[in-house]
Write a structure and sequence with these properties.
Blueprint: E1 44-45, H1 54-63, E2 68-70, H2 78-88, E3 96-101, H3 108-122, E4 127-132, H4 152-164, E5 168-174, H5 178-187, E6 194-198, H6 206-215, E7 218-222, H7 243-252, H8 256-266, E8 270-271, H9 278-285, H10 294-301, H11 313-316, E9 318-319, E10 337-338
Parallel strand pairs: 1-2, 2-3, 3-4, 4-5, 5-6, 6-7, 7-8, 9-10
Helix pairs in contact: 1-2, 2-3, 3-4, 7-8
Domain NADP-dependent oxidoreductase: 41-302
GO molecular function: oxidoreductase activity, acting on the CH-OH group of donors, NAD or NADP as acceptor
Binding site for substrate: 133
C-alpha cells in the first residue's frame, strides 16, 4: 500500500465510511518538485476552445496570473494548449496541468500510451493530475461501442502505475456517480485526489459535494457557469439573463459570471471556466476577490434547478449519474448499463 507523503497534497482525515483509507487519498510522483502544492482554486478550462484561439488564451491566462490549466485528449486541442504554455514561458513547477484518459484507452495496456501522448502534446514532462474522464470504456477503434470486458477497476489499477512511474503527480476521476466513487475507494491503493464533475447554480448537488469533503477528495466544477456553454440546450433561461443573478451582480458591483464563480469558490469547489477572450479570462480571475454573505449563500441554494447540461449517456446507451440529480433518462426499450 502506498501512503501520501506530501502534506500539501493530502492531509489525513477521519471519514466514518472509509477509515481504512486514512492516509491513502493520494500520492505524489516523487521525482517532480512543484511549487504548486495543492490544485489552484481557479483554472482555465479548454473544452470546446477553438484550436486557432486556445494557444493565445492559455498564454494570456498564464501571463495574467492563472497557474492552472485543465485539458483532455478528447478536446483535440492539447497540442495548441501546450503551445500556449510554451509561449507563456512559465516554469513547469509553477503551474498545475490536468489531463484526462479518454474512454477508448481504458484497457490497462493502453493507459500509459494515452498519458504519454497528452504529456507530449502539452509539452510538459509530467502531469499534476490525470483523470479517468468517464466511468465508461469503449472498445478501441469501434467508436462508442461499450467494452464490457474492461472495468473501472482494471483501468484504475493501470492509472495507479502512472503515479509510480512519475508520469503524473496525482490521479482522479470525472463524471462518476456516488456508487462509482465508493467502489473505487473500496479498492484503491493510490486513491483519487480529485473528482471533476458538472456542478453549478442550476445543478448544485450540495450533498454530493459534501460527500467528497468527508472522504477527502477535491471537487473540480466543470461548466461552472451553467448554460453559458452554447452546446447546452436545457430549456432554462441563460444564467447571464437570470434576474436573480443579475440582482446579485449589481449588489456585488460585479458581472454575473464573477459572482457565479465566487459562489463556486466559496462552497469549496475548484472552478475551471473556459474562455478564449482576454476580457473574460481576466474578469473570471477577479472572482477571487468577491465575498458572499451567509444570507447570499442561502438564497443561492434556493436557485437550484437540479438540471444537468452534459449527459452523453443516452447516445452511449449507458445510464450515467444513476444515484445523482437528473440521471440519464434512457428510453424504456433501450438496453443500457447503469453507472
Amino acid at each position: 500500500m502506498i501512503f501520501a507523503r506530501n502534506p500539501t497534497i493530502a492531509t489525513p482525515f477521519v471519514a466514518p465510511l472509509f477509515t481504512l483509507l486514512l492516509s491513502v487519498v493520494s500520492v505524489t510522483a516523487e521525482n517532480h518538485v512543484s511549487r504548486v502544492g495543492d490544485i489552484p482554486e481557479i483554472g482555465l478550462g479548454t473544452w470546446l476552445s477553438d484550436r486557432k484561439k486556445v494557444a493565445h488564451a492559455v498564454e494570456y491566462a498564464l501571463d495574467s496570473g492563472y497557474n492552472h490549466i485543465d485539458a483532455a485528449l478528447i478536446y483535440r486541442n492539447e497540442d495548441q494548449t501546450g503551445k500556449g504554455i510554451a509561449l507563456a514561458g512559465v516554469n513547469r513547477e509553477d503551474i498545475w496541468v490536468t489531463s484526462k484518459l479518454w474512454n477508448e484507452h481504458h484497457r490497462p495496456d493502453q493507459v500509459e500510451a494515452a498519458i504519454t501522448k497528452s504529456i507530449s502534446d502539452l509539452g510538459v514532462d509530467y502531469l499534476d493530475l490525470y483523470l479517468m474522464h468517464w466511468p465508461v470504456a469503449f472498445v478501441p477503434g469501434e467508436g462508442t461501442k461499450i467494452d464490457e470486458e474492461t472495468s473501472i477497476f482494471d483501468t484504475w489499477r493501470a492509472m495507479e502505475d502512472l503515479v509510480r512511474a512519475n508520469l503524473t503527480r496525482t490521479i482522479g476521476i470525472s463524471n462518476f456517480a456516488k456508487k462509482d466513487v465508493e467502489d473505487i475507494l473500496d479498492m484503491c491503493n493510490i486513491c483519487p485526489y480529485a473528482h471533476e464533475f458538472e456542478t453549478h447554480p442550476y445543478l448544485q448537488q450540495q450533498d454530493f459535494v459534501d460527500f467528497h469533503k468527508e472522504v477527502g477528495i477535491k471537487v473540480i466544477a466543470y461548466s461552472p457557469l451553467a448554460n453559458t456553454n452554447p452546446t447546452y440546450h436545457s430549456g432554462l433561461k441563460p444564467i447571464l439573463q437570470d434576474s436573480f443573478w443579475k440582482y446579485m451582480a449589481d449588489k456585488k458591483e460585479a458581472t454575473v459570471p464573477q459572482v457565479v464563480l465566487a459562489w463556486g469558490l466559496q462552497r469549496g469547489t475548484v472552478v475551471i471556466p473556459k474562455s478564449v477572450h482576454e476580457q473574460y479570462i481576466k474578469e473570471n480571475l477577479e472572482a477571487l476577490d468577491i465575498k458572499l454573505t451567509e444570507d447570499d449563500m442561502k438564497a443561492i441554494a434556493e436557485q437550484d434547478k437540479k438540471t444537468r447540461m452534459n449527459d452523453p449517456g443516452k447516445s452511449w446507451g449507458v445510464k450515467l449519474f444513476a444515484d445523482l440529480d437528473d440521471p440519464t433518462d434512457l428510453d424504456e426499450n433501450a438496453k443500457g448499463k447503469e453507472l
